[in-house]
Amino acid sequence: MPIPRLSAAEIADALPGLPGWALAGGKFDGEGAAIHRSFAFADFAEAFAFMTRVALVAEKADHHPEWSNVWNRVEITLTTHDAGGLSTRDVDLARVIAEMV
Ligand code: H2B
What pLDDT band is residue 34 in, cutting at 50, 70 and 90? Predict the structure, then answer.
């Protein structure tokens, strides 16, 4: 069974618990279908080490970020493709990522 999208009220409840994350447009839908956060590190090695930590967790959870890296910066967008928007999986992954910075 596909995972349900969070309602607008559920998103509003979750956001204060996710410092640095802001609502963004998802690939398949408009504003509010995704959350986004920018990360900056000392250099590329630090940025890529962070990405490696996140990748291992994401693969284990079978929930993968949409992301990009330019030298010391990593841009991450979280959305649930199976739900066509935000789900609890994004909130959970955002929390874990915040602990890996
Ligand atoms: N990642 C994200 N962000 N959303 C998904 O719906 C998703 C995923 N689905 N990773 C998973 C993989 C699915 O395609 C596989 C088959 O379990």
Answer: very high
